Amino acid sequence: MPPARTGEPLPGACAIWRDGHWWHSSLRVAGWTERLVEQETGQLLRRRTQLLRRGWEPPDPSWLGDAIPHTPCPDCDPANGRRACTCAVDTSTIDSDCGRCGGTGLRPGPSTCHTCLDSHRIHQGLVVTLTDLDHQVVHLNWRAGDAASAPPVGTDPDGTPVVRLPERFRLETHARTLGVRPEDLTEADGGWPVDQHLRQGYVILPATGVEPLAQQLAQAGRGRPAARLIVLAAPPEVATLPQLIRLAHALNLAVDVSVRDNRRHHTADPRPDHDISWYVEITVAAPAQPAQAVDVPSRPTLAGAIAYALDYLPSVLAEATPDDPVQPIATPRAPMSEPIADPEPMLLRLGAHHPGQWVTVRVAPGGCRIDLHEREGARPLSTSTDLAAALTALGGTAA
User: Which of 108, 109, 85, 80 is nearest to 97 (CA)?
Assistant: First the structure.
């Protein structure tokens, strides 16, 4: 029942639409909060903000289910500011001679807890929503304890078993229902690719007796409020690789396109990426400079890697601006007049010819070079005046 009227002035009211009805409630003062605001002059002002609460709560919606259960994180001690040491992560034994934790498994410091990402809880369920942000949506409610047989598919080098969950607990199955490639699944918050283990259902069991689905849910739900994961099931709408190269040429910039094919390199080990990884970077580097080591994170699709590179284009343009105010800024020129053939098929052939290794193609206004990343550094495979000539020179090798 709504609270009795007392005649006291109220700061406002609110209306809630729930289960086909409007529910009305007054707002009451619940307290105050203070924050410091910096002015343009550098001065700091203290501003107080009033906190409000509803005068009464309407009935719970009919669709509201039970809360997702959770347990306290066993690997962090928030009261004393301690986190699990790296020697105790994903293992059942603790290094007694560890110099960071002294053999206790816990060490002080500002680092984030690897197990719970500082949420201090281990979720035993996960609510996943897949949507194309248009007209398709799929809701999944996974709970620990659901009957899920997970046959072993391999082992770690140290003997830790690796299992695979049934298809209904693999996001790749539901991605195909929406008509998209599993590689195009990204987190709606941040745009990061969905973890491959979550897409394909692989689970690494850290100890005997651990239930596979519970382990997967604990990993996927860590650091997520209410154990909720919203996944965008749609490819990014970005420029093609030829269009990106033309844009970079007009801005007097270079484009590094790196590919790594793991489909044959890790066939016996289910842990690493089994797919093709891409990394694209717009840079001011000259064609003669060797390619730098591929940075993380890579993307499972070329379109995703291009979208990531375009996010940092303003920073690259700022880097290309001369520090000397007297030195003029290079004037953007017209894009390449000659059409550029899509180099993706040849890049895929290069990656397949060097499985498990990064191959980088740099396309710059002054030329093109192709490098193979080895343990000792980048080894040049081909250099030429343009991309087509450099790829043609490797045509017989990459076939």
Answer: 85
- CA dist 196 and 305 (Å) reads 16
Specify whether the CB–CB gap between 46 and 76 falls below 8 A. no
For the chain, the residue count is 399
> Is the preceding peptide bond at 325 cis, omega within 30 degrees of 0?
no
> Do residues 320 and 253 touch, judged by C-beta distance below 8 A?
yes
Q: Is 35 exposed, middle or buried (0-12, 13-18, 19+ CB in 10 A)?
A: exposed
Span 121-172, pLDDT tens digits: 899 999 999 999 888 999 999 998 886 688 888 877 667 788 899 999 999 9
How far apart CA 54 and CA 30 sit, in angstroms, is 9
- Helices 302-311 and 313-320 meet at what angle, rounded to 10? 50
Angstrom CA distances, 354 to 95, 291, 315, 359, stand at 37, 16, 32, 8
Compute the average pLDDT of residues 3-27: 83
Phi, psi of 157 (to 5 degrees): -55, -30
Overall average pLDDT of the 286-311 stretch: 82
> Which CA distances in Å does 287 have to 336, 349, 365?
17, 22, 8
Interatomic CA distance for residues 196 and 266, integer angstroms: 14
The larger pLDDT score, comparing residue 281 to residue 78, is at: 281
Q: Give CA torsion, residues 280, 307, 348, 391, to 10 deg.
A: -50
Burial of 350 (0-12, 13-18, 19+ CB in 10 A): buried
Q: Tell me the whole-structure pTM to 2 decimals.
A: 0.74
Question: Would you place residue 193 in the very low, low, confident or very high pLDDT band (cuts 50, 70, 90)?
Answer: very high
Give per-residue burial for 286-314: e unless 16+ CB within 10 Å, then b: ebeeebbebeeebbbbbbbbbbbbbeeee
Over residues 285-296, mean pLDDT:
71
The token pair at 293 is 């080591």
Q: Rounded to an integer, what distance in angstroms lies between the CA atom of residue 296 and that of residue 60?
A: 44
Print burial letters for 214-248: b (CB count within 10 Å at least 16), e (below 16): bbbbbbbbbebeebebebbbbbbebeebbebbbbb
